[in-house]
Structures
1.
Amino acid sequence: MTATQTPAKEVVEPNSEDTEFVFFSGKGGVGKSTVSCATATWLADNDYDTLLVTTDPAPNLSDIFNQDIGHEVTAIDDVPNLSAIEIDPDVAAEEYRQETIEPMRALLGDEEIQTVEEQLNSPCVEEIAAFDNFVDFMDSPEYDVVVFDTAPTGHTIRLMELPSDWNAELEKGGSTCIGPAASMDDKKADYERAIDTLSDESRTSFAFVGKPESSSIDEIERSASDLAELGISSQLLVVNGYLPESVCEDPFFEGKRADEQAVIDRVQSTFDQQALATYPLQPGEIAGLELLSDVGGVLYDGEEATVDVDAATRRATNEDTVDFDSFTDGDAVAEELVPVEETRYLFFTGKGGVGKSTIASTTAVSLAEAGYETLVVTTDPAAHLADIFEQPVGHEPTSVGQANLDAARIDQERALEEYRTQVLDHVREMYAEKDDTQIDVEAAVANVEEELESPCAEEMAALEKFVSYFEEDGYDIVVFDTAPTGHTLRLLELPSDWKGFMDLGSLTKGAAPANGGKYDEVIETMQDPSRSSFAFVMYPEFTPMMEAYRAAMDLQDQVGIETSLVVANYLLPEDYGDNAFFENRRAQQAEYLEEISERFDVPMMLAPLRQEEPVGLDDLCEFGADVTGLDGVGEDDREEVTVS
Amino acid sequence: MTQLTLYEEAMCCSTGVCGPDPDDELVEVSAALDQLENEFDVDVSRANMQHNIEEFLETQQIADLVEEHGPSILPITVVDDEIVAREAYLSYDELASTLEDSPDPQEA
């Protein structure tokens, strides 16, 4: 077979003596691992010494290559020239913590060491540890090419941004919010080299993997423009998992396919500066060398994709039609949504693209319909509540045209401005009370103002705003359509973390800041299952399930919050797709529903894939009646709620 | 040039602007140190236990104090090897008068 030179091949194939690097970014569940594995395998097959590095917290390289890999560089048995390593970000963070603490043992007792350990249990430390690992592999002269299956997009971007910030901080000579300045100074040269390599287009290629869906492509556009601001341009976009034409035999799936093709057309015109490659949805999951080599052949050698239903792992051969309904109990779901005695807070969390905003809005509409005073808030800068409600949604809660229902969207910039004003006022006030000092107050304020230009401040501003919604009066229910999981966790964890810092501070300094109590209450409210419900939204596939599960475990371990509800979205409808391809996909979904149900052991809200996402109050109301279990919960039988 | 060193407990951010509320004391100290550097012939450095542990270990008198009393002895303010304050930060005014009294080693 004659190999064609595809644009994608030009991007990933090494063309110099130096080691080259290929980074794949993308949300969990888009097939990033598959594409990274296929790329690494393809490179190895073409005689390049290749290393594949994954920092995915729930790696599935072992399933894909059918071989245990783990925390050490491991040669792949069936692929000459290919080695792989799975870096567990939690292990990496713990190693980093221990390295930092080790020298302190000489000076401090066990109790004090424990205190420092708690302080180091911060998101900052996890970021730096993850980045360290990444820098380690930027110096791998023994390989021709290193393929990184990086952490999800937002995280990756942050990792990219940080070294520039660190260097700026280190040059100022100050310690940073992010890590030990002294030990980082040693690493400064490594970091600088890593940044240089990252922005060197001849040595480093950035590639995005996405699904043929508007939200997925929008997210990639945002991430790519963030990268561009750092002087890094993405060179390849892989659109993975489009519906193959041959299997779309009814109007529902023909329509779905047409939508996807329209997205791909749009991608072709908007991403015209970079290579584009596509790969179809398969009837089963992509594992094993044969399918990997099919992916590599399509992406890099311009071959036709093979969609072989018969060859796929058949899951439902002897079973009757899959019965999704058996996984859900409407009353149990409704019980997690309606207020018990006081205002109830509902948190819908999950990765971008899982339909979180729609589910949150639908639930809010159903609750308002049932007579509860409801506020729905998004903290996700990418959320389009205004599009969903077809009504303007702003920074302050406003009605969206239905009785009992308000909506709001946190405006990051306004939140930051509010936070800055609050901090600066506070500093001025503090100095105003000490009129006998010779201190130059304006210089001090300018100092603080400069410090507020940090990523920390943005995080704090968002947190302040988030907490302020706990103080909104007059609602029976506040529904949070939260930011994507990782971000949410940081946001939610921070109150605990800060409280930790405050308590520790007060041990040695005598006085805790006044805000401590406010955060205590917020955390208590979030920990009380009768006042707060945490719902994870996902679609029933491996990576999304694992990511949600991990996030749920983190919530439990770090903040003491139990998950109340799981929402499985985009279930394939039973009335359409009457062929082996979709039967196989449905059976696969049912298998994951089963596993989700076992892992989480909470009521499940099930939402089908729809021809169109619900838009406007009528659609939302109808959709809500189908999925929330709230249909029939009405004004009559609800108890009077004490609004707190 | 006079050398002023602050040895501080383990903390995330010595500027104090890192949290829901700024830490007043740290904000004050940071501003005071900046101003002192502009007004006096002084080199200011800060070491906190989390970020600069080696400076604690390498400075015998500090290491001994922390070992004996634990981190509650911090912050310690040192001017030219002499401990001028422990367990509390000095205000700008206090630091300024300490520096005025301190003999410049080059003239001595």
2.
Amino acid sequence: MNMFPGSFDSAPNIANWFTINKDGTVRMVSGKVEIGQGINTAFVQIAAEELDINPDRIEISAGNTRDGLDGGCTAGSQSMQTEGISVRKAASAARMLMLSKASELLQSDVLELNVIDGEIYLNNNSTDLSYWSIAEDIDFNQPVEIFMQPKLPSQRKLTGKSIKRIDLKNKILGTHEFVHDIELDGMLHARVVRPPSVSSRIIEIDIDQINTLKKLKKLVVNGSFIAVITEREEDAVKLAQQVNKYCTWSTPDIIIEDPLQFIRDTKSPIINSLDRGEIDELRSDGISTEVSRKFLCHASIGPCCAVAQWKGDSLEVYTHSQAVFAMKRTLASIFDIDESNVDVVHKHGSGCYGHNGADDVVLDAVLAAKELNGTPVRLVWSREDELSWSPLAPGMVTKIDANLADNSMIESFDISIKSPPHVKRPSGENGEYLLAAEHMSSPLNPPNPIDTPLDKGGAADRNSMPLYDIPNIRIQKQIVYDLPWRTSAMRGLGAFVNVYAIETLMDDIASMQEIDPIEFRLKHLSDPRIIELIEKVRDISKWTDRSSGLPKGFAFSRYKNSGAYCAMVVEINIDEDIQLINAWAVIDAGEVVNADGVKNQIEGGIIQATSCTLIEEVNFDGEIISATDWENYPIIKFKQTPQIYVELIDRPEEPFLGVGEAAHGPTAAAISNALFTAMNIRIKQLPITRERIISSLNN
Amino acid sequence: MVNKYSLTVNGQKHDIESDPDTPLLYILRNDLKLKGTKFGCGGGVCGACTVMMDGLAVFSCDTPIWSIDDKKIETIEGISQDGTHPLQELLIDEQAGQCGYCLSGIIMKVKAITDDDPTKSVDDIANELDRNLCRCGSQLRILNAVKKYLDGMSSR
């Protein structure tokens, strides 16, 4: 068993993580990258705690392959649970190593020493020594494992405090350098010339005519990957459209009328995710639900961007990818160059919420830059590219048949999940899942990805395993690989729909039995941690006082069944549209490092999930994705902002639990349950729109 | 066709040679190196590129340079000399943001609205932010900061 989840394989020594500088600063390396979730602030806070220094002293370098620390992909709400622990161990080891040196110099025992902001004290008296004075003479190339000695929970002072995000101030002042803002000497601008739809390929291109276009510096043609390079950014925008007039593209021959029906009718092999106890056919007194969600866009506000520069066979890339090392391996594989020749450097991007086009745009920029020897190229996607060429979040269908026992308790859940793949992240050789890799003159066709098994967190089947005491459970999934559209991870993966299915069904059964839906759940729970959570949200939302006021709905889940717990009550207003007015969330994320950081993630999660629940859906015109701008893929607006009340149950003795995706499923289900309470209608296809409510009333 | 244009940005006069239809956004970002203003959609729908022109909020992504000769432009970089505009300070206090990409446009929009009419309510402002999108879900924190900003203005 790997004792060190996270990044210790590539970074076993203290020196891999920390450099203590004479000038009173500390350089810290992180394998997890900032994607707006505040992870690097949490890491700085953990390190400052263990080192006993002011967090302002720490400069963090995150997601730079030159640092050598491979933290894997920043995804799945895993960063705190894996690398957060590694940071704590590595920082504690750095402290212990320095105190060992100080004890030698002071001829004292380590236990007699303490540290205040890097200054070393002996029996609480100041000494001439500090980290900054002794670090030079210490070899930090020593294993973390030998020196680590994290503080006990009772010794922590900074942990749990809401220190401010290290990056947010400059983002508010407009001075933070995003990947979009990088400017290298001689840098040119590029844009991709897009085919009409995903399986269209180039038939003919009138290069002679294109070369007469003014301001075109270079036309890039590599199979069906076509891009323009210009000196000025706005010229690339215009020329990408002009060049397309000289391109003839093939039109797809397969038209899928109803993608969700196609998913429902799939003949893909059945994968058994879980088989526990005995499953009978649905009995006449049983209850069944089938819920579905249409495809979604990640819908980042800033379109994806990358900057690439070739120098001979060496390649340097600036990117907002969530996985810089995987990108390095993938690029080395595609261009058949040694991995050591590829440097990938993370820079902050616009929020991605999963696997948007951040990786795809890298290959676009790299292919464009390859046409120029040594000149850096910056490539930004258009709004249309961002919405309709990023991988989509897959549409999906989840069905549950529930049988009830004689005592009205749930006897069995028989769960069936059908979905296109949720994870198509590039992963190196044979995993080159990049848009342009399909378009190049020698297109790559990496094998279909395997859907993550449920015991590893699952993907389509994520959170399909209810945490209620149900003796018999069967979970089966079918992965639909034969739709033309590219799909990959979006916040929560299958959890969004699976939690929606489970938590709306729990309310349906409770209603059938005329039991309060929270009471009904508590009857099926024995884990004291979950019970405390649910009772708390019931209290703070004044759940029992529902005689007047807005309709309320409840839902619960524990993300991946291994991350943070989230219990939620919402109040909605039903007018022309449904609006979320109030949300109360109680969160158990184990030990809390930054309370405000956790709250920020939950609040943002609730607002984004509300948008996904009430507004968002991708429609198709044949193979063409209709979501091309904010008019035909609207998201939530300021005037639809709910009030949100988040309470944390801090458990300093427990491990960190990831919170980034905890709120999504519960938000959707709680909104639906509030509507069900108010109008006795159950909307089974997301999003819950006015049209679907009217059609449900008419039926 | 390249023409000469004169514009004042954050109090500083600049002479620019440009095609007349070049969007202001690219002049600001690439000629004047003011990168705080962001590209989001190119169609004046998301608000990431919002700047102030003679006191009014405009989308710099679809404002061509020919239309702004001799106008006064204010960007995120110019709203306070030392980065301590009260609205920015309140946003920092509230930790109002996640990825932060949308923020400069939202700040400029709120500043334009409230400079013009400091008696607006937070609900008025939420309505007027109809074309400023935030995908991370920071709206609640942003509006909380705006509310405090409005309270501060009315008590001054």
3.
Amino acid sequence: MGIVRYFRNILAGLWNLLVGLSVTTKYFFKGTTTQQYPEERLPLPVRSRSMIKLIYDDEKDQFNCVACLMCMKACPNSCIKLEGVRQADGKRRMTTFKLDFSTCIFCGYCVEACGFDALTFVSEEYENSVYKRGSLLQDEQAMKWVRPHSPAAEAAPIENTAPATAGAQS
Amino acid sequence: MLTGENIVQLVSGLLHWAYAQAGISSLAGVIDPIISAVVMFGFIAVFVMFLVWMERKVSAHMQSRIGPNRVGPLGLLQTVADAIKLTIKEDVKPVNRDKVPYFIAPIVAFVATFMGMVVIPFDKGVVVQDLNVGILYIIAITGFTVIAILTAGWSSNNKYALLGGFRSAAQIISYEVSLVLSVVPIIMITGTLSLSGIVEYQKQAGYWFILPQIVAFLIFITSATAEANRAPFDIPEAESELIGGFHTEYSGVKFAMFFLGEYIAVVVSSAVAVTLFLGGWLPLPYLDFLHIPGFVWFLAKLLLVIYLIMAFRWTFPRLRVDQLMDFGWKVLIPISIINILATAVVWFCLYGKGAQ
Amino acid sequence: MTDLLLSQVKLSGESQFGTDEYVVNMGPQHPATHGVLRLIVKLDGETVKETIPVLGYLHRSIEKISENRTYPQCITYTDRVDYVSAMSVNLAFALATERLMGIEAPARAQWLRMVFVELQRLASHLLWMGAFAGDIGALTPFLYGLRERERILDLFEMTCGQRLTYNYIRIGGVMIDVLPEFVPKCRAFLDYFEPKIAEYEGLLTYNPIFLERTKGVGVISPEVGINAGICGPSLRGSGVSCDVRKQQPYLFYDQVKFNECLETAGDCWSRYKVRMNEMRESISIIRQSLDRLEPGPIEAKMPPVLKAPTNSEIYSRIESSRGEMGVYLVGDGTAKPWKVKYRCASFSNLYLLDELTRGWKVADIMAVLGSLDMIVPEVDR
């Protein structure tokens, strides 16, 4: 009986090897799922936490930020440095805003804490690599971002209008 | 009609005319083999580069990836770029290496495997040297690899490399046995050791040896994969265990030599498999009216077998060293001995005393 | 540790030909140590005589940092404790804090948490499967695993905007409600994913080489496993029922039907099989949770500044992808925890490595290490 089992084991092993080969052969003839990054760019979901921007109101010609310091307090890594002054009309305005992206962990607490629609994530900009570490310390001019005037975006600000990633489709 | 034999005759005719013009006809016996060896070397170099590209593409598509596609059309020149990069790279050497063996090992690995190509018949008459002991020669010459790998592992003074070298010694010596034993039935049937002779026998017999000798074919492919240190038998380099195994400390051109040597070993063993079991340059049955040259058939079959070996690599896990020995000695060798006996009995019953 | 290394440098005094132990330093940079784990392996030829894990190469003192952060800020650090299964750690900390402060998250948030934690379990097990197969020598399952994992990450990114460090499960609820198209997309993914498990199993489960490498290797007996504090799928492979989801149901795990996957052999193959079966159970849990998802608030009513009661302490545990994930919190009446301690499954599972590999071959270290599903950031924290 030992001999029979010996040969049966070998045949069963061969069969299971063929099962494995069939899987890889199937995918050999199937299409690929890879995207070619620099040429093909995936549209990121609108909720994507990629780059923090300071919203600039070009109608009022000023930043929305009123320097309430909530973002500074919310930040777990203290990477936001923020100063503001009380202007002649009695309203506080931000004068300097510095965000050190080298210590930022993109947790999103600052954007959530902001009650004045002054901070936002911009999902289009996700290539954050720089050549010098110092360039990661961005000030209000580097972070300035004007919200594009499109009726669709204003009508449904939270809707995911971007098409799903190709990875989820194919 | 375009056949490999015609091309060879044409080229040698041209060469001999050139010799006559230059007044060196008496040296033709010396120069001819050199020229054919150089041609073979060039062919192998290009073919291996193609194989590296092919392996990367095959593995990529098996894994739903694209693979190399930047350099040249379909990334075909990627290997060229890699070769250039390896050539101009700094040759990092461990300080405490054993200098001479460390230097010689990659050369031996490369040359030993390449020399096997000398007796492979690509078409009727298209062979560098049609030895009458071709199989014996190939088995003997590929056995050199173990020396190269053991030397490399030992001389580079690295613990991983040493482990890899020892593993390789154990592995290649064991699998050499089953490799030889799997070839024996073919030699028994044909009564010749010449590779061209075996193909001619298959032509006359009207069938390929893969049909009666499927077991021998499987054993041969398995042992050949092990001989070439390819996954699932790649324990001498075993990336997840020994980092690079015997070539951990090699870089630049020396690494490239090991790398190419591995691929040439794959080509040699696949070419032998094609010659022995798949009818060499013979066309597929019922397709001879197409008048496709024999070497095209040969290359097509070669690529098929190589694809198979690549598919093994990218599908199967790796055996452990003791299991590898178990598999070689307790499964492959008994079965190949049984196969020899069965072949002997069946052929004796069918054809009486002599199979000729 | 250093004197151990020094003793290798010294030649044995009595004889020039005395045999030394063959000490191999695996890691911190080694293809099979999954990051920066360092193993000092004493070998006798191919046979392993001793394996000593050296920890600390990825120590970021997350527990100490957390003592200087407010409770919500700690959540961002929990992402980094086990970045392959960040949702689970998020949940572990959030649940501990909620229990400490007596907060109850609304139903919708609970169901969402279950969906995301189970999706995370799928993602984590997929990565584990690939890495484990890669350790054994099969490289293709890794790519297959990551291919499916990407789609799970797409679902995560769609919802919370991140692919790795989510910071999604918060104290008292979740960060943001899912998009309306999330539910159909999630269901579509599950339908796509379910047959893939059979494919992975075709590649691995009964492959004779895989069986050779994993069957009977690294056997943890139930007694040894319990005594050594092994937990999660690694212990369930030995047949010990230890699923926190069953034993101390949190969220709504008592309201969904699922089986605790158990195998009896306790070897690498059983641990592999447990995880593969767990993926199927997770799919069923996600489906049930999506069915029960009803509109409602996603965040509990909470004071603006969360403060734990004075001299309060809690040990709260969940079943993370790797096993029992415990969080021990001590509150001192301020907005910051006085003490945070994570009880991580990887750390306790690593404990048995030496015992499991002693007397086996070098290659078995990789099989055992892979089958324990160890993640270095979780070991070191």
